[in-house]
Design a protein that fits this description.
The protein is an alpha/beta fold and 152 residues long. 32% of the residues lie in helices and 27% in strands. A seven-stranded mixed beta sheet has the order 1-7-6-2-5-4-3. The protein has a single domain, classed as P-loop containing nucleotide triphosphate hydrolases (Rossmann fold, 3-Layer(aba) Sandwich), CATH 3.40.50. The chain has five helices and seven strands, in the order βαβαββααβββα.
Length: 152
């Protein structure tokens, strides 16, 4: 599935719509170049999940936790030097816990990701505000979410 977004408003609307569809245990993998909009999209997804705290990129902390209608675990593994750092954080308790995991730069930890996941590859467009999101994934939740996104 491919989504084209033009500007912050469309990104926010898409993120909120996606956030409203998410359920406990969902894993979102966000990939894209620096400045592609991974954190911006995460903020919008958080709004759809009822997060009222300001969402920032956990680049140096690796993970930030937020409270919404479902707990949100926001990972940024860009600066991850080795996967042992994730083991030290107990990543599997987050991935298989009672919240939603959103992982920026997820391609860096491909081997550790659960089989069932939703992958959003974000690409910059020709215009500074354009984004193209290619959604792929594995499992029932991927199928359910793409069907819901296609409805509108």
């Amino acid at each position: 599935m491919e989504i084209k977004l033009n500007g912050l408003k469309e990104t926010e609307e898409f993120g909120m719509k996606l956030g409203n569809l998410l359920k406990t245990g969902d894993i979102l993998c966000l990939n894209g170049d620096l400045g592609a909009g991974k954190t911006t999209l995460t903020k919008s997804i958080g709004l759809g999940l009822g997060v009222t705290d300001y969402i920032t990129s956990p680049t140096f902390a690796l993970i930030n936790e937020y409270t919404g209608r479902i707990p949100v675990y926001h990972f940024d593994v860009y600066r991850l030097e080795n996967v042992d750092e994730l083991y030290d954080l107990g990543f599997d308790e987050y991935f298989y816990g009672n919240g939603i995991s959103i992982i920026e730069w997820a391609e860096k930890i491909e081997k550790l990701l659960p089989k069932e996941r939703i992958v959003l590859n974000i690409e910059k467009g020709k215009d500074i505000d354009e984004r193209r999101i290619i959604i792929t994934g594995y499992g029932n939740r991927y199928v359910e979410i793409t069907k819901e996104l296609e409805k509108n």
